[in-house]
Amino acid sequence: MPDPTNPGGKGIADLDMREIVTVTRPTLGALAPVAAFRALRLGGLETVAGPGLNRAVYLAGRRWAQSLTLASPADLFRTMAEMRLGVPKLLHQSSETIEIELAESLSAAGLPAVGQPLCHFEAGFLAGALSRLTGGRVQVRETACWGTGQQSCIFVAKLEPRS
Amino acid sequence: MRKIVEDLIRIDGVIGSLLVGKDGLVVSSTLLEDEDAEVLGAMSAAMFGTIAKAAERIGIGALRDTIVEAAEGSIQLIEAEDLILVVITEKGVNLGMIRIEMRKAARRVREEIPM
User: Fold this and answer.
1) A70, A110, A68: which is closest to A86 by C-alpha?
2) Which whole number is the average pLDDT over B25-52?
3) A66 neighbourhood in chain B, CB within 8 Å
């Protein structure tokens, strides 16, 4: 007897990114308040697992960015602003690292200092997007954040050679 | 750190070992695929973090280690300062002996972390 609540037999883990980001809200549209994201991220996940879910949040951001079609760094920056993840600005670039400042970050802008960086989702998003653009592996670390007392967030992307 | 993780995989019945931050970032791993290590690192930190929060909430203090037994093997996690040492085993291994070796390894990790 097929399950009427799940006729396709698909579980949450089987959803691909295209399905995850499909939004059918003809009246309200695809955008939601920052408060909703933070209630989930900081009010929910953090309460249950502390820092234990930071990497999972990073990987979620990375997976999303890897599913996007991005033509250039300028395209990435425009996309991040359009998606209201923050306002990115390139600070420094070499063959090995890229330093990006993100103003008005989704995860942290306006929060009081809590002794740790908080923008794991944005860091993962940058890692996924830069990986798409460079074709190599990219690790991104947040070096400054509202969570550590700064007024904007800074990310350092380490570019690893293509394997 | 690499040597500590590699020494653990030499124990009979151990099929994988890794060292991860409490935030899930992989420090060292014996798993062949980076992708596997990355996902398992994130899952290990999530597991450890959730159980640690539960222990704190229940009022039994800070979590030190945990063993997860499954049908085909086990996962053991032990705290080492800000890191978590993770070992994956086959089924039917001597869990107590592996736990003793992990405690020794965790001590070595603590000694290598600069004060």
Assistant:
1) A110
2) 91
3) none
